[in-house]
Give the backbone structure.
Amino acid sequence: MHLIAGEDGLARPAWAAVDPLLRDYYDHEWGVPVLDETGLFERLSLEAFQSGLSWVTILRKRPAFRAAFAGFEADAVARFDEDDAARLMADAGIVRNRRKVDATIQNARATVALREQGGLPALIWSFQPETTPVPASYAEVPTQSAESLALSKELKRRGFAHVGPTTMFALMEAVGIVDTHLVGSHRRGTSGIWAADGTRAAAAAEASTPTERGIA
């Protein structure tokens, strides 16, 4: 069963239908457009930390992550040094993975540097595709796309780490750049960016032109 109707009568995918934390995240955050630098840097960081783990683990640790990484303010994290890295590795509240800790600090510095070329939000959103998947089942939900591959390559070129195409597709799903809510879900087509049929919502389509996108 791909969708489960809750006690409120709303249809959700199985992964979001039982655990209250995941249900709340699905109902109010996943797929909602994130357009600010801090919000995108946080999501980019958490998606990297999630690699190899369950998302609910990251959600449970998110308050600790925010405390440990200065609210994911890029300027603050960019100033982290070896002492900060050691502090983070001693923090049981977060995922203690040195490569991911170092990548987050590196990505903060890359985010600050990127402001001179328009900023992180403009870069990430420039890879929004013309259409989004219309999955009726989990099997129809892709794990990466031409756009996520291109975004991964561009971020790496700009000095970012731990930004593989699968992680970037997960980011794009989380922040509304693509809509992979299953057909029939109460969240399908509610972002204001995408219509339920996979085409861009009228207002979003009018605001975008081919020259603004990262790929043709």
